[in-house]
Amino acid sequence: MLDQTKASTQIRNVLSELDQALTNNNIDDALKLFADECYWRDLLSFTWNIKTLESKEEIRLMIAERLVVVRPTGWATDQEGLAKRTDNITEGFIRFDTAVGYGTGYIRLKNGLIWTLLTTMQDLKGHEFSRPIGANHGEHQDEISWAEKREVELSELGVTKQPYVLIIGAGQNGLSLGARLRQLNVPTLIVEKDERPGDSWRKRYKTLCLHNPVWENHFPYLDFPENWPVFTPKDKYADWLEAYSKLMELNIWGGAEAKHASYNHDSQKWTVVIERNGEEITLQPNHLVFATGLSGSRPNMPNIPGQDEFDGIQQHSAEHPGPEGMEGKNVVVIGSSTSAHDICAALAKNGVDVTMVQRSPSYIVKSESFMKHVLRPLYSEEAVASGITAEKADLLNASIPFAKFADFMKPGVDAIREADAGFYQALEDAGFLLDFGPGGTGLFGKYLTGTNNYYIDIGTSQMIIDGKIKLASGSGVEKLDKNSVILEDDRQIPADVVIYATGFNSMEGWAAELISQDVADKIGTVWGFGSGTQKDPGPWEGELRNMWKPTKQEGLWFQGSLIAHARFYSHFVALQLKARMEGVPTPIYGLDD
Ligand SMILES: Cc1cc2nc3c(=O)[nH]c(=O)nc-3n(C[C@H](O)[C@H](O)[C@H](O)COP(=O)(O)OP(=O)(O)OC[C@H]3O[C@@H](n4cnc5c(N)ncnc54)[C@H](O)[C@@H]3O)c2cc1C
After folding, report:
1. What is the dihedral of CA 123, 577, 572, 17, to 10 degrees?
2. Is the CB of 297 inside a 6 Å radius of any atom of ligand 1?
3. Taking 70 as the threshold, does the pLDDT of residue 297 lie above it?
4. CA 27 / ligand 1 centre spacing (Å)
5. C-alpha distances in angstroms, 557 versus 186, 293, 335, 361, 491?
6. Class of domain 152-297+506-582
7. I need a surface site. Which of 107, 114, 359, 535 has the fewest CB within 10 A?
8. Which of 505, 512, 506, 555 has its CA nearest to residue 260?
9. Which residue out of 166, 177, 195, 200 has the highest number of ligand 1 atoms within 8 Å of its CB and is therefore the one to mutate?
């Protein structure tokens, strides 16, 4: 308690000095409050961008350009009960105002000076969050009902009225963003090529359950109920998505596939061709959002010599329905990430002879260890009990600059490595190739740098250790012949079925496919922050490229990633779109960096 009070007081004092310096336009005084090593991550409030400034000099340049317009005031501590001090670090939540919005954030002081600062816009002035009234009472009672209004809205949008925003894809990202935009009264239509939201999960192999626990997975405006399972089975999750879309009153066209899009710079509108029930419909939204799936929608099918000659069945993991009908067959699963593990486990449990082919190392973490050492402080029952709701955990997560990501992640990964040393040894003894993510950052490091070969172990690893799932590691596939898979090191594995658990294609691929290669080239890579790893080449960006922020193609946005990211970042995409619709100036800082 004493430490909490001291921490709040220390933060309050620094904020007060920052307030004064910025109000007096005294940049030198403001910079004196920052440590020599310092990071300022801003989500919209200063930059109308998602940007991390990684030195005093970068902060100076940003403030010099933006201060007059942003006019920040009212810097204060927030959630004081959660402020804390450990060794030389003091940290806590903060709030502030700008000329156009209200902000919250998080600050870390190192030896009394600002080490990391997160500033985020939470509300636009004049468009603050409020609960819709729903019904007019008294003499102005509604003449048409809610249901009638919904019917009219659905019949008009995209037909006689153009949406301001068109979202392609009704997965967790399209729906989260749709709900945020609905709350902000931004006319939005979502097109989904499947019939119903959730179908992409319904189509996946039947044993799939979400790997992240329920506390991490709440949706905007709607938490999962108390009795929801910790790990959601995929068909239950599909029903949640569908129910969510109804409860949030989202305007969705099912069975509607976006075929082509082009942008008209004069009208500042898109022309998007949609195929629905065999009919072509042209829509003209001001903004187009790709919520088409970061990983999961565009199967990456490798080209391997001999695929034409192979006598058996070949399928991508996305098409694999489950182990039924595979009894008595030899199945080879190519890949060693989540899908490969889940599929192998289900096959082995059904008595199928299955071999996993692992070309390169994967990161494996036991589910309970991941929860205990990585997720528990942020997304767990204990976290909620200590006041860390999912929203606060999201801010805490966002407060870590990517440049310091390894320092924050590695201790948890190391602790697991030590606690589960026997498990990792047994896996290696079984021939499994392990790695621990770039710079030892484990699962998140792999995910954020686009290397998705990881698995949160819920028992499959023991089946590999026990030999119930055969393993062929250390070599890629050279070719197939009529009835076997032949590896580069000449090993030959008999096969009646080959399942390619080889991942999914990139987001920029969607842009090339639906818009043009020129536009895809203009915007560049989507995802990754330029860590210099194989799938995430430099230059260093310090932010996930093109995600949730303006792209170099006007009116084009990307909304993707895990449920927690969908929840958190949809808020910022929605605010950017709302501001544009309302004509609030949104000068972007650092778009060309
Ligand atoms: C085996 C497996 C397990 C996973 N487990 C988890 C997990 O536990 N937790 C988690 O957060 N993530 C998990 N993921 C990742 C998961 O796929 C994504 O997090 C999630 O699906 C992303 O949601 P999304 O809304 O971005 O994309 P998606 O869910 O892929 O939704 C995109 C939608 O866009 C639609 N679409 C695509 N193109 C068009 C078009 N041209 N016109 C109209 N509609 C179109 C698709 O039909 C689809 O419905 C897993 C993935 C796999 C493969």
Report:
1. -50
2. yes
3. no
4. 45
5. 15, 13, 31, 33, 46
6. alpha beta
7. 535
8. 512
9. 200
Centre of ligand 1 from the C-alpha of residue 560, in Å: 8
Domain 313-395+403-500 in the same topology as domain 2-124: no
Nearest to 336 by CA among 211, 461, 523: 461
Kindly indicate the confidence band of residue 510, based on its pLDDT and cuts at 50, 70 and 90: confident
Fold for 2-124, please state it.
Nuclear Transport Factor 2; Chain: A, (3.10.450)
**Residue 172 CB–ligand 1 contact under 6 Å:** yes
CATH no. of 313-395+403-500: 3.50.50.60
Contact 349, 460 (CB under 8 A): no
If we measure between CA atoms, which residue out of 265, 268, 207 comes closest to residue 236?
A: 207
Q: Identify the helix (H) or strand (E) that includes residue 429.
A: helix 421-429
Q: Is the CB of 291 under 6 A from ligand 1?
A: yes
What residue owns the CA closest to ligand 1's atom 26?
A: 293
Q: Where are the domains of the chain?
A: 2-124, 152-297+506-582, 313-395+403-500
**What tens digit of pLDDT does each residue of 96-133 get?**
999 999 999 999 999 999 999 999 999 999 999 999 88
